[in-house]
Structure to design on (354 residues):
C-alpha cells in the first residue's frame, strides 16, 4: 500500500521492516524476523536464569548434613508456596475479568429487561470492528493476550523469588555451621583436635557464606539499571493511576474505576514483592553476624576466635541491593516509593484542579 505522504516515513518503515513489524509487509519471512528479535530479547533472561539455576543445583550437591538439607527443603517449600499463591491470584484475577465482562449477559439471563444490557470492555482498546457483534471473539483474544503476558511475568517473577529464598537458605546454613562449630567447645577431646574441628567448621561456614553472597549478587547483577528504570516508571505510573482512580470515583465511572484499581493493586503488589525479596536477603545476612556475636566465641581457641572476629567484622556491614546508587531494595524502600507516588499524585491533583 503506497500513500503519497509515505515517503516522509521511509526511515520508520525501514526500521519496522527490519524488525518484521511493518503492518503492510507481505514477505514470507515476516514472522521469522519477529520471532528472531523476540528470541534475542528473551535469550538474555533465559541464559541468566540458567546460570543461576545451575548454581542452585550445585549448592544442593555440596550440602550433605541432614540439618542443612532440612534448611534447604524448608526454604524450597516457602518458594513453592509463594508460587502457588501467585497462581491462585492469577486465576482469581482472570476469573474476575471474565465475570466482569460477562456480567451483562448473566444478568440478562437471570433478570431480563425489555432490551439486552450493553456490553463493553473494561480495558480500553480500539479494534476498528463492531465490538457488539464480535464481542465474544474480542473477549477471547483479550483474555488470551492478558493470560500470556501475566504467565510470563509470573513465571519469571516466581523463579526470581525462588532464587531469593535459596540465597536466604544459604545464609541460614552459614549461620548454622558457625553456631554448630561452637558446640565443639564442650566436646572433651584433645586441645589440638578440638581446635582443628572448630576451625574447619568455621571455614566451611565462611565458604557457604561467600557462595551465598555471590549467588545473591548474581540475582540482580546484570539487571540493576533496567530494574532502576522499571522502578522509576512504576513509581510515576502508580501516581498517575492513583489520580485516575480518584477521577473515576469523582465521575462515578465504574468501568474506568475497575480497570485502574486492578492496575494500582498489581503495581503495589509487584513493588512490595520486589522490595520484600531484598529485605529478607538483608535480614538473613544480618543473622550471620547475630549468630556469631551471640555464640560463646570467647571460649573458643585463639585461632578460632580470630576467624570468628573476621566473620563479625565482615558481616557487621550491611548487605543490600542498591539501584542507581540511590535506591535500596527493602521494605523501607517500598515505603519510600509509595510515599513519593502519593506525593506526585497530590502534585498532579493540585495542578489539574486549579
Amino acid at each position: 500500500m503506497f500513500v503519497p505522504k509515505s515517503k516522509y516515513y521511509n526511515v520508520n518503515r525501514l526500521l519496522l521492516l527490519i524488525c518484521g513489524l511493518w503492518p503492510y509487509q507481505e514477505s514470507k519471512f515476516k514472522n521469522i524476523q519477529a520471532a528472531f528479535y523476540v528470541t534475542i530479547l528473551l535469550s538474555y533472561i533465559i541464559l541468566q536464569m540458567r546460570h543461576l539455576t545451575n548454581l542452585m543445583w550445585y549448592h544442593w550437591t555440596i550440602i550433605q548434613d541432614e540439618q542443612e538439607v532440612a534448611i534447604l527443603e524448608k526454604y524450597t517449600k516457602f518458594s513453592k508456596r509463594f508460587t502457588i499463591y501467585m497462581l491462585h491470584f492469577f486465576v482469581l484475577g482472570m476469573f474476575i475479568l471474565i465475570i466482569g465482562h460477562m456480567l451483562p449477559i448473566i444478568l440478562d439471563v437471570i433478570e431480563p429487561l425489555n432490551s439486552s444490557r450493553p456490553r463493553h470492555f473494561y480495558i480500553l482498546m480500539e479494534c476498528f470492528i463492531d465490538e457488539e457483534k464480535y464481542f465474544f471473539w474480542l473477549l477471547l483474544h483479550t483474555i488470551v493476550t492478558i493470560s500470556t503476558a501475566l504467565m510470563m511475568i509470573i513465571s519469571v517473577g516466581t523463579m526470581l523469588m525462588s532464587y531469593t529464598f535459596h540465597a536466604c537458605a544459604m545464609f541460614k546454613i552459614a549461620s548454622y555451621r558457625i553456631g554448630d562449630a561452637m558446640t565443639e567447645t564442650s566436646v572433651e577431646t584433645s586441645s589440638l583436635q578440638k581446635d582443628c574441628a572448630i576451625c574447619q567448621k568455621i571455614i566451611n561456614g565462611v565458604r557457604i557464606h561467600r557462595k551465598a553472597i555471590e549467588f545473591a549478587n548474581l540475582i540482580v547483577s546484570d539487571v540493576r539499571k533496567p530494574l532502576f528504570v522499571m522502578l522509576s516508571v512504576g513509581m510515576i505510573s502508580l501516581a498517575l493511576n492513583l489520580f485516575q482512580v480518584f477521577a473515576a470515583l469523582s465521575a462515578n465511572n465504574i468501568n474506568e474505576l475497575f480497570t485502574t484499581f486492578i492496575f494500582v493493586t498489581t503495581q503495589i503488589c509487584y513493588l512490595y514483592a520486589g522490595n520484600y525479596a531484598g529485605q529478607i536477603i538483608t535480614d538473613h545476612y544480618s543473622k550471620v553476624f547475630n549468630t556469631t556475636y551471640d555464640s560463646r566465641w570467647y571460649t573458643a581457641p585463639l585461632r578460632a576466635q580470630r576467624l570468628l572476629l573476621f566473620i563479625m567484622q565482615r558481616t557487621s556491614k550491611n548487605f543490600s541491593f542498591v539501584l542507581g546508587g540511590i535506591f535500596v531494595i527493602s521494605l523501607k524502600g517500598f515505603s519510600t516509593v509509595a510515599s513519593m507516588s502519593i506525593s506526585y499524585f497530590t502534585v498532579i491533583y493540585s495542578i489539574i484542579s486549579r
